[in-house]
Amino acid sequence: MISAEILTNEDGMITGYRVSGHSGTAAHGEDIVCAGVSALTQSALLGIMEHLHRAVSYDMASGNLSVRLITPPDDYTEAILHTMYMGLAEIEKISPKGIRIQEVKG
């Protein structure tokens, strides 16, 4: 199962995320849950870095991605990160055994 943690500040704005594991819903290379989660989370990182030019701390390895904003979140980072969160939530609705999302405050 994929574990996704959405990190939020005291105002409820997203400050980062951690995704780890594999869904196990299909064979390696054929798993659309893993592919969808990877596409959403990596696109959010690219959008923040390349489009918004925001500084982030991130670590990426097979089956793991950890992203943290260095500067406080703003309306633009929130738009990208909340869209990613909504996409992950839709995948969780379709495949509750493939991904589990938790919101982590603080």
Helical segment tally? 2
The coarse overall form would be: globular
Note the run of SSEs as H and E. Answer: EEHEEHE
Largest sheet: 5 strands, mixed
Q: What portion of residues is helical? A: 25-40%
Low-confidence parts: none
Main-sheet strand order equals: 3-4-2-1-5
**Strands, count:** 5
Task: Tell me what the structure shows.
The protein is built from 2 helices and 5 strands. It is an alpha+beta fold. Strands 3-4-2-1-5 form a 5-stranded mixed sheet, covered by helices on one side. Helix 1 (32-51) runs antiparallel to helix 2.
SSE order and pairing:
Elements: E1 2-8, E2 14-20, H1 32-51, E3 56-61, E4 64-69, H2 75-94, E5 99-105
What's a quick, concise take on this entry?
By secondary structure, the protein is of the alpha+beta class.
Question: Descriptors for this entry?
Answer:
single chain; 106 residues; alpha+beta; 5-stranded mixed beta sheet; 2 helices
